[in-house]
Amino acid sequence: MGYLPLIAMIGLQCYYAILAILTRAAMFDGLSPPIFVVYRHGIATLALTPIFFSSKRRQSLKSSLTLKSYSWMFVTSLIGATANQNAYFKGLYYASSTAATAMTNLLPALTFLIATIFGFEKVDLRSLRFIAKILGTVCCVVGALTMALLKGHKLLNTEFIPFIHLTASRGDDWLLGCLLLLASSFFWSSWMIMQVPTSSFCPDHLLSTFGMCFFATIQSAIFALLSGENLQAWMLPSPLQISCCLYGGIGIAVSFFIQSWCISIRGPLYCAMFSPLATVITALITATFLQEELYVGSLVGAVGVITGLYIVLWGKAKEFDEIKQEVLPSNMQGDEISSRVDLEEPLLLPEKSEHVDKNKMEP
Question: For 249-266, how does the pLDDT look when each residue is reduced to its tens digit (9 = 90+)?
Answer without folding.
Answer: 888 777 877 876 776 677
